[in-house]
Structure formats: C-alpha cells, structure tokens
C-alpha cells in the first residue's frame, strides 16, 4: 500500500518534470545586451564590462596580442623623453605625405564612425614604399596621451601597403572652432549600425584636415582594437585640430567612450620630427 503511494508520487513528479521541461522555452537565449559590440567578424567585444579591454584576449583566440603583446597601442607620449634626434632626422627624410582630396563613405561599425576612402589616391611614402590611405575613424576621448593628458577626441587615418603593412596618422581633436572640413561627414554620421554607408557628396581636403604644424611623434605599436595586431607604424601629430563642442557632443552621444586604455611603453623609442 505504502509502495503504491510512493510510486504514485514519483509518477506525478516525473510527469510534472517532463511537462515543466517542455513548457520552458529553451529557444530563448541570453539577449545580446549591446549590439554595438558586434563586429564584422561576429565576435563581441566592447570598451567596458565583461567584453572590455581587459578581456579582449579571452573573447577570441585570435586576440591574444591584446593581452600578451608587448608593443601595444595607445601609449602616453612624454615629450621630454623622445629619442635620439639624429635618428629622428633620418626617419623624417624617409617619409612623405601625398595628400589631396578624397571622397568618403561613412558608416557606423558599432565601435566607431568609419569613413572609408572610395579611392586609393592618397598615400604616405615610407622608405619609398607606398601606404595608401584606406580610411579615417574616430575615438572619444583620445587614445594616445601627451604628457599624461587626454584630448577630447582622436582621429586615426589608416594607410596600408601592398603587403598589408599598416601606418596610422593620429590627430588629436580639442574643443574649439567648428571643423568645416569634417562638417558634411558629421552631418551624415549614421547613428545606427544598421544604416547603409553614406557616400559624401563633397570631397574632404586632407591637407586642410591636418594641423598647420606638422610635428609628429613616431613609434611602432599595434591596432588599438582587437585583434591588436603589432607592427603598426604610428605618427601622432602634436598640434591638435579643433571641433566645436556641438560636433564633439554629436560623436559622444553615439560613442560615449571608445578609447582603449594606455599600454606599457616597454622601452620603445618615440621619435619626434616634422612630416613633409
Ligand atoms: Zn583607431
């Protein structure tokens, strides 16, 4: 009698268990909390929290350099500690800038606003090797520091050689006059990653985008976002360019903070010279 009672209870429990299991919607996955973390490769990373810079290495096996690399970017540039002047003069002689106008297609890739050059006519010559300008994107606040100081924003102008080597010109952006050169781009900034890239009507004059003074700090570092690939030739212009508060706020209303923390210098030399 007692046994039957126990069997009955166990049977009811089993039925409740089975019904309960199928009643739960097992298709419901954890929601994607932040679509801005989605990259073109479908791997999630972000600038804060569980997929933030400290975890980039763990997000994907291809991102190991983000955690183990020793030539990483960005860095703090201490103006007084720039290296051997003679070497800097030699470097300066090997580098020239071939900038004219470029038409850009602007998109929001979830991590930044990216303006891709629709032509490959602008370039940076390093040791007679051509690095073609492929695009510009932006960070808020700046990624690099000068003497421990951040700027409001930083623009990165990407150049790539035929062999896939990278050279990046970094422009600090500080609050000031409205930037006319980037005005149309800013009017067309896609606020949402789902929007198609917008091709700007007017060319951007790259010579006019750069600051008057062409003093640069050069060092070898990495991509500042996953996969943090090393061997990137960095040229950071000392004189900041300006954007109005309205322009800066327009960007930070979309990307409040998209800068990687400062990385260890690890004995690397930083050279200072003028870009021609
Ligand atoms: Zn960048």
From TrEMBL:
Reactions it catalyzes: hydrogencarbonate + H(+) = CO2 + H2O
Residue ranges crossing the lipid bilayer per the database entry: 5-24
Ranges for domain Alpha-carbonic anhydrase: 43-274
Pfam families xref list: Carb_anhydrase
MF terms in GO: carbonate dehydratase activity; zinc ion binding
Superkingdom, taxonomy of origin: Bacteria
Database matches in InterPro entries: Alpha_CA_prokaryot-like, CA_dom, CA_dom_sf, Carbonic_anhydrase_a-class
Enzyme Commission numbers on file: 4.2.1.1
Record CDD domains: alpha_CA_prokaryotic_like
Gene3D superfamilies, A to Z: Alpha carbonic anhydrase (3.10.200.10)
Keywords: Lyase, Membrane, Metal-binding, Transmembrane, Transmembrane helix, Zinc
Keyword Metal-binding: yes
Family (UniProt): Belongs to the alpha-carbonic anhydrase family.
Protein name per UniProt: carbonic anhydrase
Native organism: Ureibacillus chungkukjangi
């Amino acid at each position: 009698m007692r046994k039957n009672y126990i069997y009955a209870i166990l049977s009811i429990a089993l039925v409740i268990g089975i019904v309960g299991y199928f009643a739960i919607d097992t298709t419901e996955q954890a929601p994607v909390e932040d679509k801005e973390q989605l990259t073109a490769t479908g791997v999630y990373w972000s600038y804060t929290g569980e997929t933030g810079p400290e975890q980039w290495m763990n997000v994907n096996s291809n991102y190991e350099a983000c955690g183990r690399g020793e030539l990483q970017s960005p860095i703090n540039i201490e103006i007084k500690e720039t290296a051997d002047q003679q070497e800097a003069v030699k470097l300066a002689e090997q580098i020239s800038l071939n900038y004219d106008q470029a038409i850009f297609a602007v998109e929001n890739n979830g991590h930044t606003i990216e303006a891709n050059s629709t032509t490959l006519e602008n370039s940076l010559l390093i040791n007679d090797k051509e690095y073609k300008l492929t695009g510009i994107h932006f960070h808020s606040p700046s990624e690099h520091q000068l003497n421990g100081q951040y700027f409001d924003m930083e623009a990165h102008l990407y150049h790539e050689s035929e062999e896939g080597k990278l050279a990046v010109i970094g422009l600090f952006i500080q609050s000031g006059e409205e930037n006319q050169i980037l005005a149309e781009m800013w009017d067309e900034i896609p606020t949402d990653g789902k929007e198609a890239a917008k091709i700007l009507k007017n060319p951007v004059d790259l010579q006019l985008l750069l600051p008057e003074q062409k003093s640069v700090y050069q060092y070898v570092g990495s991509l500042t976002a996953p996969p943090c690939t090393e061997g990137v030739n960095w040229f950071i212009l000392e004189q900041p360019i300006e954007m109005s508060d309205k322009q800066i706020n327009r960007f930070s209303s979309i990307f409040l903070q998209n800068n990687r923390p400062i990385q260890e210098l690890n004995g690397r030399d930083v050279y200072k010279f003028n870009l021609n």
